[in-house]
Design a protein that fits this description.
This protein is mainly alpha-helical. 56% of the residues lie in helices and 4% in strands. The relative contact order is 0.17.
Length: 344
């Protein structure tokens, strides 16, 4: 059970991701879907309520027992903080106030970030948009596990640890494998988070801050909602690289489960994604899907044909040149630099 399994490979393909093609077909057949695009300011109400619930609970638990603190952090705080992280996902696409008001989306993102305990709003945006532009790209899609993760977490026990460590792997993987310059808004996000955390710690004590951090860590770890991390793109049926979830937890997670629909139409707010499926049902009803995120987590651990390697990958292209590794990518860049120097 604990043996390392090192023979697994990603599902390497040389075709483009399927969403752009399907988007064109659907819009040609159902142009009315364009009316679903836009924004949904109502989501800000859920965000505001969630943030205040977390602050109230953190203050309430400031002198509680450790057992009570951990239970609240997992059951209530973990659920709320995970939904707030998914609100950040919506805000990354400017789906609260629209593309004409990006600053409003960023400000709501800063606010939604407060109970998470760590700055995440802007950094997530910086990498997540690449996931849409370069789905499956072995360099730019940092949602894909590294080969080190595949080596370490391919046994059943390893996959369980993979799920437990998900908040750390998901957060730090992009920074290490594809570092990007620090953005001014990231610095602002960091300052706001630090000031808020310091205030809560100074006024109400260490347990209030720990409640936020535990809620984030436990909520994004082995938690029912965390099933979406696996359900979205891990290959359970060969030939399909994106999967939707049509279960009850969509009601509190901004319909993040409608993942095929979201990748097909990333500018449609989560509230309208079920309408996409209803209008263009023939495009979605025959795709493999899930109705339980808990079952997805269980199957991920117990199914020996699925693991961190079960992702579709495609080679990176620089102009017309395909590269298949970070080293080749860097070499191509260096060759370009050397060539330009010779021409000067």
């Amino acid at each position: 059970m604990g043996q390392y399994i090192t023979t697994h490979e990603f599902y390497h393909v040389y075709t483009d991701e399927p969403h752009a093609t399907r988007r064109k077909e659907i819009l040609k057949k159902y142009p009315e879907i364009k009316q679903l695009m836009g924004h949904d300011w109502y989501m800000s109400i859920q965000v505001i309520i969630s943030v205040f619930i977390q602050i109230i609970l953190a203050i309430y638990l400031k002198e509680s027992s450790w057992f009570k603190l951990i239970c609240f952090a997992y059951i209530i705080g973990g659920t709320i903080n995970h939904t707030l992280s998914l609100a950040l996902h919506e805000l990354t696409h400017n789906l609260a106030f629209g593309h004409s008001r990006p600053i409003y989306n960023r400000l709501l993102g800063f606010f939604a970030n407060l109970p998470l305990g760590i700055p995440a709003s802007i950094t997530f945006k910086k990498y997540h948009l690449d996931h849409h532009r370069f789905q499956g790209d072995i360099i730019y899609d940092t949602d894909i596990p590294t080969r080190l993760e595949v080596f370490l977490f391919s046994s059943r026990f390893g996959k369980l640890i993979f799920l437990i460590l998900m908040p750390f792997l998901y957060s730090f993987r992009p920074i290490f494998i594809l570092p990007k310059p620090l953005h001014l808004l990231e610095l602002i996000n960091l300052i706001i988070a630090f000031v808020f955390d310091s205030f809560m710690f100074y006024v109400f004590g260490i347990k209030t801050l720990l409640y936020f951090l535990l809620s984030t860590t436990l909520g994004l770890s082995l938690h029912p909602i965390s099933g979406h991390f696996i359900a979205e793109h891990y290959v359970f049926k060969e030939g399909y690289e994106t999967y939707s979830y049509y279960g009850p937890l969509n009601a509190i997670t901004y319909n993040v489960g409608y993942h095929n629909e979201h990748h097909d139409f990333p500018y449609i707010p989560g509230r309208n994604l079920p309408k996409v499926r209803k209008i263009a049902s023939e495009y979605y009803d025959n795709l493999p899907c899930y109705t339980s995120w808990i079952k997805v987590l269980y199957d991920f651990v117990m199914n020996d044909n699925v693991g961190p390697w079960a992702r579709v990958t495609r080679p990176t292209k620089i102009g017309r040149i395909q590269v298949s590794s970070q080293q080749e990518y860097e070499q191509q860049l260096q060759n370009s630099v050397n060539q330009s120097h010779k021409q000067q």
